[in-house]
Each structure stands twice: as C-alpha cells, then as structure tokens.
C-alpha cells in the first residue's frame, strides 16, 4: 500500500528541527530513515492510517545540554 504525503525533506534531524523552530511551520518527523517537516494535520493523517514514524524534538536538559528525542507513533 502506498500512502502519499506532503512534506519537505531535510538531510539531518537538526536541520528539520531548526526549520520548525525558525517559525516556518509544521512538525519535524522521522519516517523510513528520512527527516521531514510537514503540517501537523498531515502527520495526524499518517498516524490515523497506521504509518509508523516518530516526532522529533530538541529537548533541553536541566544542565542546559540539548538532546534530540523521538516520540514514536504506531
């Protein structure tokens, strides 16, 4: 089964997250080993269709260190 979605692909996780943090739009996700930014509604549609992916977030630790964390879906 093929599911089409609209997204911008980025070479790295950091680039995708930076795009969202710069106020451009959307959410950063990792899907099939690739990094994307897509509209939140697009990600919800993929989740509803049972597609496995992970949301990407830059999490600041209490000591100020930044870590990329993933939130798996499906």
> Into which percentage range does the β-strand content fall?
35-45%
Return residue spans where pLDDT drops below 50 for at least 5 consecutive residues. none
The helix content, as a percent range, equals: 10-25%
Largest sheet: 5 strands, antiparallel
Q: Could you state the order of secondary-structure elements as H and E?
A: EHEEHEE
Distance between the termini: 16 Å
Query: Mean of residue pLDDT?
Result: 94
The class by helix and strand makeup works out as alpha+beta
In the sheet with the most strands, the strands line up as: 1-3-2-4-5
Shape designation: globular
Number of helices: 2
Number of domains in the coordinates? 1
Count all strands and give the number: 5
Rg from alpha-carbon coordinates? 12 Å
Summarize the structure.
The protein is an alpha+beta fold.
Structure description:
A hairpin with a 5-residue loop joins strand 4 (53-60) and strand 5. The chain has helices at 13-21, 40-48, and strands spanning 8-10, 27-31, 34-38, 53-60, 66-73. Helix content is 24%, strand content 39%. It has one domain. It has a 5-stranded antiparallel sheet with strand order 1-3-2-4-5. The chain contains 2 helices and 5 strands. The protein is globular, with a radius of gyration of 12 Å. The mean pLDDT is 94. The chain is α+β, with helices and mostly antiparallel strands.
